[in-house]
Design a protein that fits this description.
154 residues, alpha/beta, Rossmann fold, five-stranded mixed sheet, 4 helices, 33% helix
Length: 154
């Protein structure tokens, strides 16, 4: 069982929308795989609920499309269902609900976001988002370290 699961999601070909995916890629290289599982995906899918059910803590990472660009937010999530007609509309809260209903386990979870500036086609993030990435990574590593010493010390 991984102490922490990091799920970074977003489309890396839509400028700032790729933030979660990019952060997950970086953390997959930086963190100990024995304590942290990292998923980088373009969208949330029902299959992620199984990995969620095995974790002690889940950190979802995404770009927010509202707020002052570059602003970091962290909110605790609770499992809940929201009406959705498309698989690309799955929310982290719905993934938590699925983990609870399908696997009987729903660990504490948080959504960490940075407000984006551009969601247009492109593979480069905006300067405000790029500048906020070190704070996001520090926040993620801090949450992992506080809750079980899952990060590498190198």
């Amino acid at each position: 069982m991984a102490r922490a699961l990091i799920v970074g999601f977003g489309n890396p070909l839509r400028s700032d929308d790729g933030l979660g995916w990019h952060i997950a890629q970086q953390l997959a290289r930086d963190l100990s795989p024995s304590n942290v599982e990292v998923i980088a995906t373009q969208q949330l899918t029902p299959e992620i609920s199984e990995a969620v059910s095995r974790a002690e803590q889940v950190l979802f990472v995404d770009a927010a499309n509202t707020g002052e660009p570059g602003t970091l937010q962290c909110e605790q999530l609770l499992p809940s269902a929201s009406p959705s007609r498309h698989s690309h509309d799955l929310s982290p809260a719905l993934i938590l609900m699925m983990a609870n209903e399908l696997y009987g386990c729903c660990p504490p979870a948080y959504l960490l976001t940075i407000a984006g500036d551009s969601f247009e086609a492109g593979n480069t993030m905006s300067p405000a988002v790029i500048a906020a990435i070190p704070a996001m990574i520090a926040e993620i590593k801090g949450r992992i370290d506080r809750d079980g010493k899952s990060g590498r010390s190198d």
